[in-house]
Request: fold
Amino acid sequence: MRELFENIGKWAGRVVSAAGGMALMLFQAILWLFVPPLKLRNTFRQMEFVGVKSLFVVILTGAFTGAVLALQSYNALKRFGAESLVGPTVALSMARELGPVLTGLMVTGRAGSAMATELGTMRVTEQIDALYTMAVNPVKYLVSPRILSGVLMMPVLAIITDFVGVLGGYFVAVKMLGVNSGVYIGRTVDFVKPQDIFDGLIKASVFGLILSLVACYHGFNTAGGAAGVGEAATKSVVLGSVLILVADYFLTSVMF
Amino acid sequence: MLKLSPEAKVGIFVLIGIILLVYMSLRVGGIQFGRQEGYEIFIKFDSVAGLDKDASVRVAGVEVGRVQGITLQNNKAKVVLRISADVKIGRDFTAVLKTKGLLGERYVELVPGSPNAPSIEPGGELTRITTYTDMDKLITILNDVAVDIKKVSGSLANVLGGTEGEASLKNIVTNIEDITERLDNIVKTNDEKFGTIMTNFEAFSVLLKEKGPEITDGLQAVSDNLNEVIAENRDTLKDGFGNLKAATAKLGDTMDTINKLAKNVEPKIDESVNGINSIVKKIDKGEGTLGKLVNDTTVHDNFNKTLTGINSYLGKVESFKTFIGYRGEYLFDASDTKSYLSLTLQPKADKYYLLEIIDDPRGKKTTTTTDTAVAGTTTTTKEVKTSDSLKFSVQVAKRFKDLALRGGIIESTGGVGMDYYMFKDRLRFTFEAFDFDKKRNPHLKAGLRFSLNKYFFITGGYDDFVSKLKLASPYLGIGFHFEDEDIKYLLSSASSAIPKQ
Reply:
């Protein structure tokens, strides 16, 4: 019994300290971002890793999500004779929700886990300690570029997901299900407002911040050798995904 | 393969993202980016339920602007529209709130007016507004229509269905039965009669054959006798023939008079026909108006009103009565007869119009002045001659219980009259005053009229009793009048719509 309460207490303590640690790390990362010399080359390398290299997986996800959305909404809307609304349904869902969220989840799985593993390995092999000894701030050198690249690259990935998703939906609805192409595009243009897309991009940016921060925090605080590195990767992916979905709800309730 | 630096790769990647973003925003945003371009106008609607900010503004379905804002002003919705600079909105444009599809979003449609109208300056107000029926109103109207249709079918059912309708249908069938029966009877009876007639003929011819010589002898004797009679009365016969001749001459004169009359009337008939022609032409031209009427949304209400009007009109027609009458009055002093042909139009029990054509033997008064000079003194003799003439009376009459007052044109001059009814209208005292002339005194006429039965009456009294021309004369007359339904229906324009009872 005492053990149970001890565990609850420990867990609560861990949650609180993790939240505090992440906030502290974010604060430091932002602070170091504005302190020269700027590690531009490092940042671009991270951007390439988070953004460019995630492109293929994001395109696949977006295309098939749009396609399946078109298929499902067509079957539902056909019952009301409202097939013309397939376009708006796909476009609005992609722009507002699925584009940012799915991109966030994919990037978490791909880049977030990689970040955590990389930083964790550096931690257990004492490379981070070495940086300290070389008077290089590891937060400035390692964390700031990663968080910046997450915040900047996620919206770009999300807009690509949106576009590819609409294309996928168009392909399925028009080419396979026989919805009139003019109606599909016309209705989409009628119903979707630029604000929908912009809000989705803001979401994506916030998701980028969450996933890179969580990954960096867990990688930075890895302990316990190779097993600890694996645990850090797993934790960062799970917590990152959960936080993205939770944040999505609150962001949606605030924005729309 | 070209080896790109991370910066270049990220640059290309970001560029792709920006291009996509701009493309998508432009596609879905329409002219949103050029939002502050163009000019503002405003419209005041009674209600803009369902209209949102940024809703599109369209002319002929083409988007020309957006709704900039909606505010409440004096309990009316003031909608500010931003119109693109290259679109001119005329002052006579009509603003309509429309819905995309049945359930779609609302937008403002501006319906163009005439192409020459001046356009609204920026910041001006568009005052013409048409409210289109929304679903609720449409359903209400449909409901009203259904109620109306129900009423119509109900009255049809009343006419054909009820006991009355059944009875009249039954009557019709009975009448037809009766007629066929009678026809049958007639044929049967005539059959017998024919037989009888033929038998009689046969008997007669036999008789002729047998008694032919005898009859011839008898005829001979009769002609002999006739000859004798003629010889004896030759002179008397001569006189008779002379009288006959005079009578024929008089008949000829009468025919001449009638001919003249007809000639006088002929141009008037021509005029009437022309008048009718022009009226018909005007009605023909009325087609355009009809078309407009049908397109008008208020036709439904008007139709209802018209139906009510027709109903009351039919009621009036039912109480409408017309009488045709004739009376002749023998004037003792003139030894001649004055004839009246009258048409009474009685729209209500207490009101009637009286139209009369009067053949007055003393209608025309010609005064001849003869100056005769005898031994220096001139004697002036005035002589009044009267001759036959046709006169007209058109009078409006209103009856108050037993007293009826009438007035208008009496015998082609202005006049008034009064009738007092006694003994349930069987006896009537009549007094008329007309032809007001100071020199001759007005023409006054008083008399009594007694109805013998529904159709015939006798009349008597004293005519023109204050005349200075010594035309006063007692009179006695007889006449008849009857109600004529056909004239009534001829006069009511809705003749074909009214079933005959």
Summary: The first helix of chain A runs from residue 2 to 33. The interface with chain B takes residues 41, 44-45, 47-48, 51-52, 55, 91, 152-153, 155-157, 159-160, 162-163, 166, 188-190, 192-194, 196-198, 201 of chain A (CB under 8 Å). Residues 222 and 231 of chain A are 8 Å apart (CA to CA).
